[in-house]
Amino acid sequence: MNLSLSYMIDTFVKLAQIPSPSGNTNQVISWVTEELSKSGVHVERTNKGALLATISGRNNDKHRLLTAHVDTLGAMVKEIKSNGRLKLSMVGGYAWNAIEGEHCQIETATGRIYTGTILTSKASVHVYRDSGKAERTEDLMEVRLDEKVTDAQEVKALGISVGDFVSFDPRTTVTESGFVKSRHLDDKASVAILLGIMKAVQEDKLELPYTTHFLISNNEEIGYGGNSSIPSATVEYLAVDMGAIGTGQTTDEYCVSICAKDSSGPYHYGFRKKLVALADENGLNYQVDIYPYYGSDASAALRAGYDIVHGLIGPGVDASHSHERTHSSAFDNTAKLVMAYILSDELVV
Ligand SMILES: [Zn+2]
Description:
Bound molecules: zinc ion
Cofactor: a divalent metal cation
Number of domains: 2
Active site: 220
Keywords: Aminopeptidase, Hydrolase, Metal-binding, Protease
Binding site for Zn(2+) 1: 69, 186, 241
CATH topology of the largest domain: Aminopeptidase
Binding site for Zn(2+) 2: 186, 221, 321
């Protein structure tokens, strides 16, 4: 089977380099559209800017849908300060210290790109005694632009305005030991996996038992990704999104994580048991976990009122929404479980 691990990791690296904070995802969606056109997959762009790719199956009365989100955390210019620094407003949820020291890009409304660094306003230890202790808040964090500016007027003259999108340098590194270190593994790793799956299905001319949709959603980090544009024949909905690692979790950076429950409540029990059975049958490295502070495209679809069976799996990602890391093994195990699922003949209900 042409399910290529190197294609998926290379694709992740490319996706990570395209800025795509929630609310500003046209560029990355266009890139994914182009990539899918190479595989000859039929795609449609939704009004909200997501991408719905469809591969026909033997049974066209009942459909399956898988999703992964291509939007990421980011920020917006909240205010141009009188000293020429930029105050930020978060896009998505994270801790301010997770972006301290990060290089960033500011995109103006006309498409100009400026660079800067995210720092506290008390960054120098030679000047501020409490530099390290001050609580990292929206008020303390600021962007130092790489431009000769000293006041707000000079910043505005560059074309920078309140509402401009700010994206973070992903600092993507693939190590010889197989680790993938990067921001936005959540959830571009899973987007890369779904692209790898679609490529393999097309190249190997695999016949899917059911017509299967792949929704590349673009508003997950702000809560409502994947909650619309679900074709009416859809009966099963599988979100492919990162597995959460931390104290008390069994998920690690090598496995595919199968989510039993998150903040939204339990995922469909029968679907979860099916995913576990498929992982067992295929000898995959998997863990079942509960994610304490988490929601997904699938839970968003349930809240929107869809009558579907919902599940959630994904590669284990360490330090999520911070300096994330996973391993090629997690890509591999997740892709194999997704492939086993879309080829499975039985529906959950
Ligand atoms: Zn995610």
